[in-house]
Amino acid sequence: MKYYLIAGEASGDLHASHLMRALRQRDEKADFRFVGGDLMQAEGGTMLRHYSTLAYMGFVPVITHFGTILRGMRQCRRDVLLWKPDVLILVDYPGFNLGMAKFASRHLPDTRIVYYISPKVWAWKEWRMKDIRRYVGHVLSILPFEVDFYRNHHAEDKITYVGNPTLDEVAEYKQHHSSDFAHFIEENKLPSRPVIALLAGSRRQEIADNLSRMIRAVETLSDHYQFVVAGAPGITADYYHQILGDAPVRVLYGQTYRILQHASAALVTSGTATLETALFRVPQVVCYYLKAGLFFRWLRWLLVKVPYISLVNLVAGREVVPELVGSDMTPESAREHLLRILPGGDGREAMLQGYDEVACRLGEPGAPQHAAERILEEIRA
């Protein structure tokens, strides 16, 4: 079978590479062509473009590089049209991929169109549901609550929950890595005090806004705890130093899961990191400071259709972890919530019970395998 995949960012590259591996295990003659990254390339096949040539986020970067994005889309359309894949697999990246779905549905009637990792239409841009219903054959969801959303939009036949790949990544890590705290601190030359993990995001402004407040939130706890930042790829140690100054904080790169494995609690900027933290059973406070916080609160009420920003709470359908967003994210508020979830705190056990509920709703590992099986069913159909 011929599989054409389009992933437009690093996370999509990761998830698509695992899917390619699962497809090849089930289809020895699998032939891949793709827009993606290094991880996908390592699985074999032909790469048309690297996602980094198209991955622009935010209004100004998109407008500035609009010509590049448009040329990339034209090139991709021509390539898909000439190659005529059995299935077109779109991985997140909705601005680009929904356009590709529309094109393929009109010009390649024999090609199945599958979306792996649904666009977040449940949060914003709900109007995209019209394009999904019209141009996408099937959606392979990694978030269980999306099934209810599609059902409410009379599109339950369009979606299947296949599991969450973060479950696979965390389970695989735990299987191959020791939980020996003494070895962790010895290897990284850390003190023996318990760890509070600081996961402040992956973008420079996001880190600048949140990490400085996280440090002020924990500074009074330095006699009993040590603070470890999970360094983001592409962010230099010098940049962290500009924010941290002389604060007693270590930055460790490439060890996010290892830090979580040994942390007593965490302050986490929203994103997949909140779900990873929950799967490691580390109590957390979700912190997302934004300048013009009051304006953001109004904008969120106007545009965002969900009550929470963390995947933990969205999966649970209730507040399991506190969310300090915009102007609510102050050092004082973060410290107050953190004290409640540290060992001995009155909120710790309830949060861990909430994590059990989240894990139950996510189900078992095996998302790439389940997705691969569903794709093959689509082709056979």
Keywords:
Rossmann fold, 18 helices, 13 strands, seven-stranded parallel β-sheet, elongated, alpha/beta
Description:
The structure is a single chain. The protein has 381 residues and is an alpha/beta fold. It has 2 domains: 2-163 and 366-380, Glycogen Phosphorylase B (Rossmann fold); 169-362, Glycogen Phosphorylase B (Rossmann fold). 50% of the residues lie in helices and 17% in strands. The protein is built from 18 helices and 13 strands. It has helices at residues 10-26, 38-42, 59-64, 66-83, 94-107, 128-135, 145-152, 165-176, 181-187, 204-218, 237-244, 256-261, 272-279, 293-303, 311-316, 331-341, 348-362, 367-380, and strands at residues 2-7, 31-36, 46-50, 87-91, 112-116, 138-141, 159-161, 195-199, 226-231, 249-253, 263-268, 284-288, 323-325. Helix 10 links the parallel strand 8 (195-199) and strand 9. The longest helix is centred in the N-terminal third of the chain and has 18 residues, at 66-83. The radius of gyration is 22 Å and the shape is elongated. The two termini are 14 Å apart. The model is unreliable at 56-62 (pLDDT under 50).
